[in-house]
């Protein structure tokens, strides 16, 4: 079974690595090519956009793909829409693998907002020291609030034109530890954190650190996604794929006994 895995996440890499060891599957791992030194998955990899839903559909046909797994980041909305459209057009099964969001806990001070623009507005007019842990894509939005002092963390260097005037950039790739996040927030005297609700362990320490230090988190909501089969971890995706293989072979019990 030829499986396209739209990747860029820990879960996508875990799934691709599992499938590469399973002779029933022939996985192709796909990345947008956003980072200079991407983490690979030990299987056939392709890098770069497909050219919209149409380009993706053409690519799926050309590669004779049997099934699509959308294991992109929950905020990578465009590719997820394209995946649903292209899979439907080609009559292929699609599964979306998105890790569950973090849940608010009792001592959390979260302010929920719809998008980066609303996050910027939520920072208010008074000057504050802001930790921006949202990646590189939407930094330019915060140029509309130049009064704040920002600490921006990203894997690769942001384009300087996207940065607000008072911004220090930290180049780092997770996972991040609680000890390090606590000392970063103390050293930089952070007053508010802007975050996406990415879920997962690698980026969660900043949320826990904010909780412990009584720092507000402006939490950007996940974008809406079109309807699709969904799961939240690589094991569940494997079970779903097992089911497809079984159906294809007319069996009722899967190879993994689930
Ligand atoms: P996006 O806005 O949904 O996608 C923009 C365009 O990038 C897509 O239309 C597609 O180009 C291309 N693309 C995206 N993901 C791709 C993939 N896995 N393989 C091939 N092409 C892909 O996505 P994004 O927010 O730019 O994110 C890009 C990648 O970074 C994703 O793989 C995602 O998992 C990862 N990532 C994103 C975030 C985030 O916060 N957005 C965080 C961590 C990692 P075409 O239309 O030309 O096909």
Instruction: Name every ligand kind in the structure.
Output: NADP nicotinamide-adenine-dinucleotide phosphate
Order of helices and strands: EHEEHEHEEHEEEHEHEEH
Report strand %: 15-25%
Low-confidence residue ranges: 252-258
Largest sheet: 6 strands, parallel
Shape verdict = elongated
DSSP summary, beta strand count = 12
3D architecture notes:
The chain has 258 residues and is of the alpha/beta class. The protein is built from 7 helices and 12 strands. The strands form 2 sheets. The protein has a 6-stranded parallel β-sheet, with helices on both faces. Helix 1 crosses helix 7, helix 2 packs across helix 3 and helix 5 crosses helix 6. The structure holds NADP nicotinamide-adenine-dinucleotide phosphate. NADP nicotinamide-adenine-dinucleotide phosphate (NAP) binds next to strand 2, helix 2 and helix 3.
């Amino acid at each position: 079974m030829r499986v396209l895995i739209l990747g860029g996440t820990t879960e996508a890499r875990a799934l691709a690595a599992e499938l590469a060891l399973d002779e029933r599957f022939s996985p192709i791992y796909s990345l947008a090519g956003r980072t200079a030194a991407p983490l690979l998955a030990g299987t056939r990899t392709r890098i770069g956009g497909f050219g919209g839903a149409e380009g993706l559909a053409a690519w799926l046909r050309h590669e004779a793909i049997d099934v699509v797994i959308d294991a992109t980041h929950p905020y990578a909305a465009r590719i997820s829409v394209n995946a649903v459209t292209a899979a439907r057009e080609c009559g292929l099964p699609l599964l979306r693998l998105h890790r569950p969001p973090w849940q608010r806990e009792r001592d959390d001070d979260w302010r929920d907002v719809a998008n980066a623009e609303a996050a910027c507005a939520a920072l208010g007019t008074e000057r504050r020291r802001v930790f921006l842990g949202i990646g590189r894509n939407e930094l330019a939005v915060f140029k509309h609030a130049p009064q704040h002092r920002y600490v921006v963390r990203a894997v690769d260097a942001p384009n300087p034109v996207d940065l607000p005037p008072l911004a220090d950039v930290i180049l780092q790739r997770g996972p991040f530890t609680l000890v390090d996040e606590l000392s970063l927030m103390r050293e930089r005297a952070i007053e508010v954190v802007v975050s996406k609700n990415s879920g997962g362990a690698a980026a969660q320490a900043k949320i826990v650190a904010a909780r412990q230090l009584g720092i507000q988190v402006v939490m950007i909501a996940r974008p809406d996604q079109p309807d699709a089969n969904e799961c939240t971890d690589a094991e569940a995706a494997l079970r779903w794929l097992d089911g497809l293989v079984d159906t294809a072979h007319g069996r009722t019990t899967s190879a993994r006994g689930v």
